[in-house]
Design a protein that fits this description.
By secondary structure, the protein is an alpha/beta fold. The chain is built from eleven helices and five strands; from the N terminus they run H-H-H-H-H-E-E-E-H-E-H-H-E-H-H-H.
C-alpha cells in the first residue's frame, strides 16, 4: 500500500482518511439520479439525449440541471441514437409550378389548418418499401400513413384518406408537400380538390420548405429503424405503427415545449 500511495502521489494517512469517509452524499444522489435516467432512457428506446431526459425528470418533479444529466449520461455511456436520412430527389416538372408555396402566407395557429406530407423509403429484405405520411403542422401529430412497394399517387392518397377519416377537416385546409409526382399527379390533386383542400408545394430544389415532415422521418429512422433488418412487410408495418403511437403520445418534442403532440393538442383545446 505504501508503494501504491507513493505512485499515486498521496500519503498513506490521506488515503485511509479518504477510505473512512465512504461515499459522499453527492455521489449517492448521483447514483439514485442515474437509476432514473437509465429508466427514462430505456423507455425512449435508447433515443433520448440529455435535453429530453432532463425535461422528463422535471415532469416527474426532479429538479436537476441539464449539465448534470449530461455528465451522468456520458459517464454511463448513455447516448441517444442519430441517423442520416437518405431520400430520393423529387421529380420536377415545369407545369407543376401552378401549385404555389402557400406556407409563405399562412401559419398554423390551431389543428387542422395546415397538413404536411412526405414520402421516404425503407429496405425490407432485398426490396424497398415506400412510406407516405400526413402530419398536422401545428401539433406535429402524425394523422395517417401508408406503405407500398410502388411510389405513386395511390400511396399518397391512401395516407391522405387515412388522415381525413381520422380528423374530418373543414374545407380550406392547406396540404403542403414537395413536388414529387406522387403528390402533383392528378390522382392525388383531384382528391384534394374534391375535399376542398388547397394544395401547396415546396420551391424547386428547396427540401427545407417541408422541414416538419423531414424531421419526422429523421426521428423515426434514428429512433426505431436505423440498424434494424426487416424480413417482411408485416414486421415493418408493426414497427411503424408502434413508433407512430409512441411519437404521438409519448415522445417529447422540443418545438412543442417538450410536450408530446397529443398532449400539446389537449393543452391547446
Amino acid at each position: 500500500m505504501k508503494r501504491l500511495c507513493r505512485l499515486c502521489g498521496v500519503s498513506r494517512a490521506g488515503f485511509y482518511a479518504w477510505q473512512r469517509r465512504g461515499t459522499s452524499a453527492r455521489s449517492k444522489q448521483d447514483l439514485r439520479l442515474l437509476e432514473r435516467i437509465r429508466e427514462i432512457f430505456g423507455r425512449s428506446h435508447r433515443t433520448y439525449g440529455s435535453p429530453r431526459v432532463q425535461r422528463e425528470l422535471a415532469s416527474q418533479g426532479v429538479r436537476v440541471s441539464r449539465r448534470r444529466v449530461e455528465r451522468l449520461m456520458r459517464a454511463a455511456g448513455l447516448r441517444g441514437r442519430l441517423a442520416r436520412v437518405y431520400r430520393t430527389n423529387a421529380k420536377l416538372h415545369v407545369h407543376y409550378q401552378q401549385h404555389p408555396n402557400l406556407l409563405w402566407q399562412a401559419v398554423a395557429r390551431q389543428v387542422d389548418r395546415i397538413w404536411v406530407g412526405d414520402v421516404t423509403y425503407i429496405r425490407v429484405g432485398r426490396a424497398w418499401r415506400f412510406l407516405a405520411m400526413v402530419m398536422d403542422q401545428y401539433s406535429r401529430r402524425v394523422l395517417g400513413w401508408s406503405l407500398a412497394g410502388v411510389r405513386s399517387t395511390r400511396l399518397t392518397r391512401a395516407a391522405l384518406d387515412h388522415a381525413i377519416r381520422h380528423r374530418r377537416p373543414r374545407a380550406g385546409l392547406i396540404f403542403h408537400s414537395d413536388r414529387g409526382t406522387e403528390y402533383l399527379g392528378s390522382g392525388f390533386s383531384d382528391r384534394l380538390r374534391a375535399r376542398g383542400i388547397r394544395q401547396s408545394t415546396t420551391r424547386g430544389g428547396c427540401p427545407a420548405d417541408n422541414a416538419h415532415a423531414e424531421s419526422f422521418f429523421h426521428s423515426m429512422k434514428a429512433d426505431r429503424l436505423h440498424g434494424v433488418t426487416f424480413e417482411d412487410d408485416k414486421a415493418l408495418r408493426g414497427s411503424i405503427a408502434g413508433y407512430v403511437r409512441y411519437y404521438n403520445h409519448q415522445r417529447l418534442h422540443s418545438a412543442l415545449g417538450y410536450c408530446s403532440p397529443v398532449a400539446y393538442e389537449r393543452q391547446a383545446a
